[in-house]
Amino acid sequence: MTREDIAVRFRLLVVIATLAAGLATPLPAHHSLAEYDPSTLIRFSGTISEIKWVNPHSWITLMVRNPDGSTFTANIEVAGPAALLRKGFDRAFVNVGDSVVIETWKGKDPSITKSFSGRTLTLGDGRQFDVADNWMTQGLNGAPSPTR
Q: What are the structural domains of the chain?
């Protein structure tokens, strides 16, 4: 094997190692809030009827009582379990049947009236948490800022 052959193989090995290292490095996923209206916040007070701790987004279903006594079901998309934990929110903080207040963004599509994107969640004891599905923290409860 000549020096040129060794040099070519070495360069090829460096390229393959660089590509492999790049593929193995976890990157945070970017989830757009483009389908929601960031200029309109809606606050719901209600009782949690279902919680889905799934990736990439967790979901909280809230039963909201209207002023006329009827009920409304709001499906609220929040950050995934790991992102919530990084924001200082543990799944043990909420259970089905708990009363909470949640601030949400409504969808831009007027035909979708029951799905929202969560921004903040306030527990019955007054603790408030950033539950938004993004990498920004609102600094609630002294939760550390997520690192990239």
A: 36-142 (2.40.50.140)
